[in-house]
Amino acid sequence: MLKLCTTMISKEKKTSVIGKLKTSSKDTGSAHVQIGILTERIKEITEHLGFNKHDFMARRGLLQMVGKRRRLLKYVASKNSDSYLSLIKELGIRK
Fold it and tell me: CB–CB of 8/61 below 8 Å?
């Protein structure tokens, strides 16, 4: 049986990530939240590529997401280094 891939994370995962990383009660789009959501999507696509080695479009999308996350992390690091360090520690991202 085929395992279908969805490049979108589930609504429950997304709300839990937003709940963990939001800075205020209405925060859904800050850099911290965007990095968290991208990290979850990257994990899912990495798992998908383990099963589907020849899915080159998914691989390209993964590389684009990693680049976007890297740019957002660079922005957070330039604004507040303590916040950056706590964020990468919480998400388990290498420097």
Answer: no
